[in-house]
Amino acid sequence: MRLILVGPPGAGKGTQATRLVEKYSIPQLSTGDMLRAAVAAQTPVGVKAKEVMDAGGLVSDEIVVGIIRDRIGEDDAKNGFILDGFPRTLAQAEALDQMLQDSGLKLNAVLELRVDQTKLVDRIIKRAEDAKAAGEPVRKDDDPEVFKQRLEAYNRDTAIVVPYYEKTGLLSVVDGMQSIDEVTASVESILQGLDEKV
C-alpha cells in the first residue's frame, strides 16, 4: 500500500498516518520528521534545512527528493509506505512519479484531508497548549505566526498538487473536520474500496 496524505498543516495527517502504520505495518515517511532528524544529527542537509525551517519556509525540492529517494529504498518500505508532507509542489509530484516509475512502483491512493482553514489556527494553538501541559516541547512550527506562514505556503505551493492527483484518478477527499475516529473510518472505507478493486 503506497499512499500520500495531503492537507494543510494541522489537518491531522500525522495522527492518521500513525493509525495507518499500525494497521498496514508500513512506515510513515514524514519529510518533517526526516528533516528534523537530519537537523538533530546536524548533517549537512540538516544544517541547511534548519535555517529555512526556522524562518517558516519550505526546504528545496533537491533536499527533499534526495531524502525520499533514499528512504523508499530501505527494507521496511518494500511493502509500501505513507508519504506525509510530500510532495509539496507540482515539481515534487512529478519527481515522485518519475522516481516510482524508475523503481517499477506506483501509488495506490492520494488522500486529501480537507479542513476549514479558519479553524486550523485554533487547532494549532490547542496543540501547543497540550504539549506545554504535558511537559513536552512545543514544535517551532506550532508558533501561530510561523503556522500562518506555513498555511500561506501550503495554499501557494502545495494546494496545486490536489488537482494534479485528481486528474490521475488517485485522489480521494476526506472531511478532516470530523472527529479523529470518524476521519480514520472514512480513510479505512476508501482503502477497503481499493482492496476490493484489486
* Overall residue-averaged pLDDT value: 87
Low-confidence sequence ranges: none
Work out the strand percent: 5-15%
Please compute the radius of gyration using only Cα atoms: 16 Å
Can you describe this structure?
This protein has 198 residues and is of the alpha/beta class. The chain has a single domain, classed as P-loop containing nucleotide triphosphate hydrolases (Rossmann fold, 3-Layer(aba) Sandwich), CATH 3.40.50. Helix content is 59%, strand content 12%. It contains nine helices and five strands. It has a five-stranded parallel β-sheet, sandwiched between helices. Helix 2 crosses helix 3 (44-54) and helix 6 crosses helix 7 (144-158). The protein is globular. It starts with a strand and ends with a helix. The model has no long low-confidence stretch (mean pLDDT 87).
Summed up:
A 5-stranded parallel sheet has the order 2-3-1-4-5, sandwiched between helices. The longest helix is centred in the C-terminal third of the chain and has 18 residues, at 180-197. It has one domain (2-197): P-loop containing nucleotide triphosphate hydrolases (Rossmann fold), CATH 3.40.50.
Notable characteristics:
198 residues, Rossmann fold, five-stranded parallel β-sheet, 9 helices, 59% helix
List the helices and strands and how they pair.
Blueprint: E1 2-6, H1 13-24, E2 28-30, H2 31-40, H3 44-54, H4 61-72, E3 81-84, H5 90-102, E4 109-114, H6 117-133, H7 144-158, H8 161-168, E5 171-175, H9 180-197
Helix pairs in contact: 2-3, 6-7
